[in-house]
Amino acid sequence: AKDDNSLEVDFGALDLSTPHLTLPSSIGNGMQFVSKFMSSKLNDKPESMKPLLDYLLTLNYRGEKLMVNDTIDSVDKLQTALLLAEVFVSGLPKFTPYLKFEQRFQEWGLEKGWGENAERCKETLNFLSEVLQAPDPINMEKFFSRVPSIFNIVVFSIHGYFGQEKVLGLPDTGGQVVYILDQVRSMEEELVQRIKQQGLHITPKILVLTRLIPDSKGTKCNVELEPVENTKYSQILRVPFKTEDGKDLRQWVSRFDIYPYLERYTQDASAKILDILEGKPDLIIGNYTDGNLVASLMSSKLGVTQGTIAHALEKTKYENSDAKWRELDQKYHFSCQFTADMIAMNTTDFIITSTYQEIAGSKEKPGQYEHHYAFTMPGLCRFATGINVFDPKFNIAAPGADQSVYFPYTQKQKRLTGLHPQIEELLYSKEDTDEHIGYLADKNKPIIFSMARLDKVKNITGLVEWYGQNKKVRDLVNLVVVAGLLNAAQSKDREEIDEINKMHNLIDKYQLKGQIRWIKAQTDRVRNGELYRYIADTKGAFVQPALYEAFGLTVIEAMNCGLPTFATNQGGPAEIIVDGVSGFHINPMNGREAGTKIADFFQKCKEDPSYWNKVSTAGLQRIYECYTWKIYATKVLNMGSMYGFWRTLNKEERAAKQRYLQMFYNLQYRNLVKTVPRIGEQPPRTTASTSTAGAAVVRDEIIVRPKERKPRNRIQRMMTSLLGPKRRANK
């Protein structure tokens, strides 16, 4: 849109010196590219290895040096020490403990951290020697996977009800909570193993930072510090939002209304973290818009390596939400959210995604991040370059499912048969209750099953409508959905209320009672795992009908349990499933086609029962090959180590962009936050709040100031657009 008075932001102009990928097939392999580029940069001149030595000299744990000490003050001395040490350990038995030769290493300027025994030390010494001799990406990656640089990790997930029980299905609370808890368990396991292999006796710590909610709805969200189950060193730390007079805010806040609280939250959370960890964390990981923004603020303040995970970017979920931002802003505050997303994407050192589609999309549809390359919010802001999908910060690391909870239905010895009476009551009792409505008249039919939050994007009501409209599907199978609340009066979530009412209307419209069971959100993961398997016993299937899904954790869970799965072709599930082999893609925009595909599958299974087993087995094989938490944790910790050095290596190049981001945050984002009412406040009544972009932002109109000629220089244009016409006139 042509709008000469809008703020124009061009983050790409500040990345001109940063190398970018060029091949579409390389998108999402940022760490490999960084490794290659660092190898070439360090191989440039003899003195180019000095930054690597300087980085190694910074390694310590609470002041105690690791790997090298200050007696090694040149690359030549380092190479000599490595040679002497490697020859020495080569003459020792493989499993000689490091303590037996620690003193000899110190004589050469080497400290602990190389390995737990002679063999491990020899390998690590060799990796670094190869890098110093002739840097190559393979040895570079191997070496940095051994560097003892990460012991304490902070993970931010702020919105919703973050807890370990009784939270799933509550407003703004779904798969992200499950993802993070499993992520933390896998990272702790990998951290403990690495620290042991490094020959160190250090206790790692992982803190999951979320919001403390005094009115916790029967959950533990009002408990400040809670151990993460099945871990030794991980905790959930809850920090409250503050009212303007400094009191704890008691009630839940929608993720769309959260922005006025985040800056103060960052300050309070930082103080708590520094106290508990007795120092700075080594890695900060943000989740979703709010967690990513707070992670960015803290990372910038403390100088810590940062990773971000979007989970879902709202701009891609709501069609034309950038162009229509003003009509949506009072309800969703997208002006704040999209601005916060841009700040976090450009501040972070690396971005973790679950799929290629999440970044760059497909032939039919742009990816979540690709949508943010260039866009306009008319009258407010134009992003000439927001985020470039060829940026080497993008990395694909797909999560898995907890194998102790989600295992195949065929593993009879592990099955939780004691839960079957509860599950049978949940599925088949005829009475409507506060927990379920509808009933299944024919218990012999297979069940198609879906479980998700009850919001527009998850499209559960869409699935119900497809089912209601397709007589063949209704004749072949029953429908069971687990989603949200059953009574709109009990919900405070705007979208959920609309969807609850729509569900009731659809059940009545298509006369579905006798063929549908609608169960309210279930928070017991263990029982949910057995529920998947029980559905598999009926020779049913799982359906994930979302209009868009960044990844699709329920798809992984269902396939882990051996349940044939139909999932949206919009987003990550299209990569998880090989269509027609390990499951099926469905188009959520074409309910008739999706219904026909489901009907054809069950008709084929009726004619050939072995077909169901074939699809089930192929789904399990796909999971085992590509989607485990072990693979995920290894990748993420390697990113933390590699990008930590990359951050140091490009410190000067980063400085200008960080200053620009700080200015954008202070002059643009903070003003937008003022338009978001706090709990108990009315929306601002002022006719306009002046944007630093040179336009006055109004709820219903834009007051346009006279045009000014744009400076030709790109950097000048960015700076003058940030300062605004008034300030330029006063120069």
From TrEMBL:
Sucrose synthase first GT-B domain location is: 139-428
Q: List residues of the Sucrose synthase EPBD domain.
A: 29-116
Quote one Gene Ontology molecular function term. Answer: sucrose synthase activity
Q: Name one GO biological process term.
A: sucrose metabolic process
Under catalytic activity, the entry for this protein gives:
an NDP-alpha-D-glucose + D-fructose = a ribonucleoside 5'-diphosphate + sucrose + H(+)
Keyword Flavoprotein attributed: no
Domain Glycosyl transferase family residue range list = 439-604
Sorted keywords for this record are:
Glycosyltransferase, Transferase
The record's family statement is:
Belongs to the glycosyltransferase 1 family. Plant sucrose synthase subfamily.
Q: What does this protein do?
A: Sucrose-cleaving enzyme that provides UDP-glucose and fructose for various metabolic pathways.
| Name of the molecule in the record | Sucrose synthase
Which species is listed as the source?
Aegilops tauschii subsp. strangulata (Goatgrass)
